[in-house]
TrEMBL record:
Domain CzcB-like C-terminal circularly permuted SH3-like intervals: 285-339
Name of this chain's protein: Efflux RND transporter periplasmic adaptor subunit
NCBIfam families listed in its UniProt record: RND_mfp
Protease keyword on record: no
InterPro entries, A to Z: Beta-barrel_RND_2, CzcB_C, RND_pump_MFP
Organism name: Piscinibacter gummiphilus
Similarity remark: Belongs to the membrane fusion protein (MFP) (TC 8.A.1) family.
Highest taxon of the lineage: Bacteria
Keyword Signal: yes
Pfam families documented for this protein: Beta-barrel_RND_2, CzcB_C
Segments forming domain CusB-like beta-barrel: 207-273
Residues annotated as signal peptide: 1-24
Keywords on record: Signal
């Protein structure tokens, strides 16, 4: 048994040494003589932190039903532009129209009764002046006249309410915008409060982000907006607003950044809010975009060591400015990185 253990130890020693050499070789490669490199330089500027946000419409309306009724016509679809007052859909309004017609007939009857009471009151006044009737009879005629006037006014108001309610069966756009969602189809039953159509105004968009209360921008600061996959890379908001309330659970405050008009974005898109670090200014480090290598969840650059070997180092990137990418952490000024990450990777 002792003899076997000795041989195992003799074999394990060279094997561990070989594994260590293989691991070191996998972490760095010798930089070829023709590999182009660049020295990282720092430029003065304000440091910024990024916070995830979402694009929202300043005016977005979920139009709901005010009265019950079956959907008999859907005249718009998602993605369609609409004008203010344009009909979006119609509900079955036959019963409401009949009630409005009955109310109109009752108004006519009330007007006729009012005219009869007015003529009767005039005759009673003439008879009273000739001492043919008593004061009590005149007062009764006056009371009937006023009662007929009140009934006519009540019927007129009731008819107006019936006409107004019949208008609820036609759903119209409140302003110029885009239909983002149609929540019902032909034949659905609309109930009060049920969402029918969602409309938003594309001319007024903003980015909303929740930021820690310690990172909230100071008055006079200039935050920037980044929407990945769109141009320009960074957008300066027209104005920004910090809501006065702080979430007690997350200790974050909501930041709203108003986008300039003409921005071709849609509500719900992912965005980032870049906020300058409060009360601090430092050195900003940027590298060419070609120097960045991405492998699965790893983002890094090849750093040239003192021995001339290229070592892959993980970095955290910031916003993109042209062909330059800001490096938030992982690099120091004065270090050299490979300009072509693909060529550096092939040297393995």
């Amino acid at each position: 048994m002792k003899h076997i253990s000795t041989r195992t130890a003799l074999i394990a020693g060279p094997l561990a040494w070989a594994i260590g050499l293989a691991f070191a070789a996998s972490a760095s490669v010798a930089a070829p003589a023709e590999l182009a490199t660049v020295q990282v330089a720092a430029a003065s500027g304000a440091q910024a932190n990024a916070f995830d946000g979402v694009v929202e419409a300043v005016r977005q309306t979920v139009i709901a039903a005010q009265v019950p009724g079956a959907v008999v016509a859907v005249q718009v679809k998602a993605g369609e532009r609409v004008k203010a007052g344009q009909v979006l859909l119609r509900l079955d309004a036959r019963a409401a129209e009949q009630q409005a017609a009955a109310a109109a007939a009752q108004v006519q009857a009330a007007h006729a009764a009012q005219e009869a009471a007015t003529r009767e009151f005039e005759r009673q006044k003439q008879l009273f002046q000739q001492n043919y009737i008593s004061q009590a009879a005149l007062e009764r005629a006056e009371s009937q006249h006023k009662s007929a006037q009140a009934q006519a006014a009540a019927q007129l108001a009731s008819a107006g309410a019936a006409r107004t309610e019949s208008g609820f069966y036609t759903v119209k756009a409140p302003y110029d915008g885009i239909v983002s969602e149609v929540s019902v189809v032909l034949g659905d039953m609309a109930m009060p409060g049920r969402a029918l159509v969602t409309v938003y105004d594309p001319a007024q968009l903003r980015v909303t982000a929740s930021v820690p209360q310690t990172a909230a921008p100071e008055p006079g600061a200039t935050p920037l907006i980044e929407v990945p996959g769109t141009a320009p890379a960074r957008i300066t908001p027209l104005r920004w607003q910090l809501l006065p309330s702080v979430d007690a659970a997350t200790h974050t405050v909501q930041l709203r950044l108003e986008l300039p008009p003409g921005t071709a974005l849609s509500p719900g898109m992912f965005a980032r809010a870049w906020l300058p670090v409060r009360g601090e200014a430092g050195q900003r480090i940027a590298v060419p975009a070609s120097a960045v290598v991405r492998r699965a969840e790893l983002t890094g650059v090849y750093v040239i060591g003192t021995d001339g070997r290229a070592l892959l180092r993980q970095v955290r990137l910031g916003p993109v400015n042209g062909n330059q990418v800001e490096v938030l952490s992982g690099l120091k000024a004065g270090e050299r990185v490979a300009l072509d990450a693909q060529s550096a990777a092939k040297g393995r």
